[in-house]
Write a structure and sequence with these properties.
The protein has one domain: Rossmann fold (3-Layer(aba) Sandwich), CATH 3.40.50.360. It starts with a strand and ends with a helix. The protein is globular and about 40 Å long. It is an alpha/beta fold. The longest helix is centred in the C-terminal third of the chain and has 14 residues. Helix 2 links the parallel strand 3 and strand 4. The structure holds flavin mononucleotide (FMN). The site of flavin mononucleotide (FMN) has 19 residues, from helix 1 and strand 4. The site of flavin mononucleotide has 19 residues, from helix 1 and strand 4.
Length: 136
């Protein structure tokens, strides 16, 4: 199985998750400014909620994807209050005909004094386990 990891971050939380995930599966964690240049079975896409939705840059990135290059998208991320961005990412992915992996990784993310230190070591371990699980 071939994997790629891309992430979008405003305050560094998703980058931390992306690095833990990428290390677990032996690839590099890259920002969404880096296009996916080789076909992959699973693109792990890290993103988050900002003002109740996903960032427009994440939407554009998903829309730029070539469905012949990406088998599935696996969603991961954190948020302060909301649950996961899965449905929003799925809706964008559907527009370009890319299916989603059903499982995802989500945890709390520090924001304005809330959830201090999250994602923490335990979250990073759980994110790594999630990624390893996709290799099976
Ligand atoms: C500008 C901004 C807006 C946010 N809006 C929301 C929100 O609407 N709902 C929520 O649950 N979290 C919200 N958050 C919290 C982030 O989702 C959370 O801190 C996440 O871990 C940020 O990931 P990042 O550090 O990779 O950007 C917001 C954070 C920022 C910086």
């Amino acid at each position: 199985m071939k994997f790629a990891v891309r992430y979008y971050t405003k305050t560094g939380n998703t980058k931390k998750l992306a690095e833990a995930i990428a290390a677990a599966i032996g690839v590099e964690a890259l920002p969404i400014s880096e296009p996916v240049r080789e076909p992959v079975d699973i693109l792990l896409l890290g993103n988050s909620y900002y003002a109740f939705t996903i960032d427009p840059e994440v939407r554009s990135f998903i829309r730029s994807l070539d469905k012949t290059m990406i088998g599935k998208i696996a969603n991961f991320g954190s948020a302060a209050m909301l649950n996961s961005t899965y449905k929003k990412v799925k809706a964008e992915a559907a527009k370009v005909g890319i299916p989603m992996v059903e499982q995802e990784f989500h945890c709390k993310g520090e924001f304005k004094g809330m959830h201090k230190g999250r994602p923490n070591e335990e979250d990073l371990k759980a994110a790594a386990e999630f990624a390893k699980g996709l290799m099976k």
